[in-house]
Amino acid sequence: MNEAIGSVAFEEGEWAVILGGSSGFGLATAQKLAAHGMNLFLVHRDRRAQLRRVEPEFEAIRARGATLVTKNADALAPERRLELMDELETVLGGGRVRVLLHSIAFGNLKLLAVERPRRGRIPDGGEALAKELGIEVNQLKGAVDRLFESGIDELEGLASKPEYGGVLDAEDMARTIYCMGTSILDWTQDLLTRNLFANDARVFGLTSEGNTLAWKGYAAVAAAKVSLESVARAIAMECAPYGLRCNVIQAGVTETPALAAIPGSTQIKAGARRRNPFGRLTTPQDVANVIYLLSLPEAGWINGEVIRVDGGEHISGSYV
């Protein structure tokens, strides 16, 4: 992303607080907002090896003239969150938080029960094809999997099926719902209590099509997304008198580290590309562009919405 600060859309003392700001939607939004004059307070959680990838991204933002403060910390730990609030209050120096983006992707991707074959399942087409070609099925499977991973989506039916680890329990579910869902409320309430929000502030959460569709291994994350949407509606209604607008972005299938962690992500991407009217995945930049637009004064009457950013993926029933 090579945007330089030119078209300044935000006032000098306005800040964005981004939770999960070192990759994916969080980083892309930081880049976009910084390019239009927004100061940034990014909270991320990365190991030392990951920091080698992250730091050049941060330096590139600073090189374009943006004010950027980064904190490699656990945004979900109550005591650390309060420490971060203290640090933020000092950094603001009388400024205010214009944007709060909750982009935390930390949850359990486990099945509800041990997987078992479905009755009447169609026989493995790979075995039949290997027999017809007179080659070993493992040889065929290896070639198909490599080609499918490279983006040849038409091979999905012959590719190896995803493998899932473990069975979801109550602790997994509760932790995921908090991390990826209801923790948005803690940050919103703390900023509100400390009077750190701007008069026309925007709070954003992120959801996915898993809020209505069932994907294997996605039950806990889906519950978190639905919980986040519910909390966001409540924020939109109850915090409006304080000047807050709260909306949730439903991105299409996007190539991010969070997606890569989902078992069967290759199949999910293949289906999205085939279904999307534009034949491609959503990008983090697509989402960042919409968050930027919704942060402008002209978008002040949009509140309490789930806004789809997917190029029409959700309305398409066609696999081309």
Poorly predicted runs of 5 or more residues: none
- Mean pLDDT across the residues is 90
Largest sheet: 7 strands, parallel
Question: CATH-wise, what's the superfamily of the largest domain?
Answer: NAD(P)-binding Rossmann-like Domain
Order of helices and strands: EHEHEHEHHHEHEHHHE
Specify the number of helices.
10
CATH class of the largest domain: Alpha Beta
Q: How would you classify the helix and strand content by structural class?
A: alpha/beta
- If you compute it from the alpha carbons, what radius of gyration comes out, rounded to the nearest whole angstrom? 21 Å
Return the CATH topology of the largest domain: Rossmann fold
CATH architecture of the largest domain: 3-Layer(aba) Sandwich
Spatial gap, N to C terminus: 30 Å
Q: In percent terms, what proportion of residues is strand?
A: 5-15%
Number of structurally distinct domains: 2
